[in-house]
Amino acid sequence: MAAGVRNAGVFGHMPDGQPVERYELDNGRGLRGDVLTLGGVMWRLRTPDRAGQSSDILLAPAELPAMLASSSPYMGALIGRFGNRIKDGRFTLGGKAYQLAINNAPNSLHGGNIGYDKRVWTAEPITSADGVALKLSLVDRDGTENYPGTVRVSVV
User: Fold this and answer.
1) How distant, in Å, are the alpha carbons of 50, 53, 57, 101, 123 from that of 137?
2) Confidence at residue 1, expressed as pLDDT on a 0 to 100 scale
3) What does R_g of the chain's alpha carbons equal in angstroms?
C-alpha cells in the first residue's frame, strides 16, 4: 500500500452489537500500523528491520473477544476521562462531592469501569501536506461513570 489511510473493515462487534472498525495507516516507507476504533487501540505496528524484513512489534490479542477479556485492558489504548488513579474514587468540584467506580481498589483508575479504552470512537482519515493520520473522536456525556460535564475528545 502506498502512503495513506484506509478503512480495513469491521474487526469485530462489541457485546451490544456495535461494530469495531480497523484502520490501516502506511507512511509509504515501510512503516504500517493498524488502529481500532475500540479505545483507539494501536493493534498492529509493522516496521522493517535492517534487512528490510517487516515484523509486527506490538503485543495484542488476535481477535476482539480476546481483547475484551484481556487482563491488560489498557495495552495500546487511549485512557480517560482521567489518566491515573483518583484516591478512593472521590473528588469534590464546585463544592459538590462525586463518587466514582472503584476499579483499582481502593481507587478509580483511568476513567472507571467503562473508560475511553472500552468505548468505540468515531474515526476520520486525514490526508495533508504533512502526511496521513487518523482522527478519533468521542463525546463523553455528563454523568458517564459519574463524572460531571460533557467532554468532547479528539485524538490525531
Assistant:
1) 36, 34, 26, 24, 7
2) 56
3) 18
Q: What is the mean pLDDT of the chain?
A: 93
Report H helices in the chain.
64-69
* 36-55 residue pLDDT tens: 999 999 999 999 999 989 99
Fill in the DSSP letter of residue 107: B
Q: What pLDDT does residue 105 have?
A: 96
Ranges of beta strands (E only) in the chain are 4-13, 19-26, 32-36, 42-48, 54-56, 85-86, 90-93, 96-99, 108-109, 122-128, 131-140, 151-155
Instruction: Provide the grid cell at 48.
Output: 522493517
Q: CA–CA separation, 74 vs 60, rounded Å?
A: 11
Cβ-in-10-Å burial (0-12, 13-18, 19+) of 41 comes to buried
Of 42, 50, 48, 49, which Cα lies nearest the Cα of 25? 42
**Residues 138/122, Cβ–Cβ less than 8 Å:** yes
Q: Give the pLDDT of residue 75.
A: 85
